[in-house]
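We now fix the convention by which a protein and its fold are recorded. The integers have meaning only within a learned vocabulary of local backbone shapes. A complete example follows; check for yourself that the lines match position by position.
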Amino acid sequence: LFVVSAYVMAAYFTFGFLRSAGGTNIGALTGALLFSLSGFMVSNLCHIPIVHAAAYIPLVLWAFTELKKNRATAKWSLIAIAGLSCSILAGHPQTLVYSYYLYILFIGAQALILGGREAGKFLLRTAAILSLAPLICAISLMPMLELSEQCTRGNLPFGSYTSYNLPLAQIASVFFPTIFGIDHGAEKIDFLNSLGVKTYFGQWNFQSTAAFLGSTAIALGLTGILGQRKRKAIWFWTAVAIISLVFALGDSTFFSIPAFYLPGLSYFRCPARALLFFNLSLAVLTSLGVSSLSKN
């Protein structure tokens, strides 16, 4: 139940976020199912802290969207703090740090749309939320921060930081997941390898680079971009998709060098985990595409 609950919550929170963002019921349902059952979420089933930390990201975005509308600010501020605290306590700092960058970009984009005094109020509320949640979870964060300075992750070299990336040569696997074969799991692979049978030909492992969302979803996402290109949300989530995909490529692009010096990022290897946000952004774009079709 604990494992399955992450996928149920991810779907429910994504549905709420997409409805709050203006999507139709069918559009929000499509986006919710796509994110909760995306390649990243399903392939990381064995990494329970990752999927639980990821499940609360749409809830925080939902709360920020409602705060932008200036609705029940006390209620949605508490919901945002609770969701962010649960994401922190899930125990996967890499997902937490990555999500904070998404929140900052999202808040900045919403503030630009609001403008004037409303933008200032929105920025103050969200800044307080982003600051208060870590204080509430200090009992978990403080030992983690102390340990980070005493282990190898505290001084991670650039080569380790970019390890377990999505190789540029394998970018096609985002759209064709089995183009480099199928990873059947460690025990089966050892057995098959002993027979001289190789089932996966990609670098690293199948699980680290999985981000497939479905051909139909990609087509509907493009429909969302083309059909609602005047909406600012379309361009924001398109930018998130591009940035997260480029980041996941690691040292295949120049972007990995300046990213290494951004606060908090140099503590973590496996930049391919940014594919979580690639899947989320595609789910949002697909939802907007379906919503556009259902309205017309």
User: Anything to note?
Assistant: The mean pLDDT is 86.
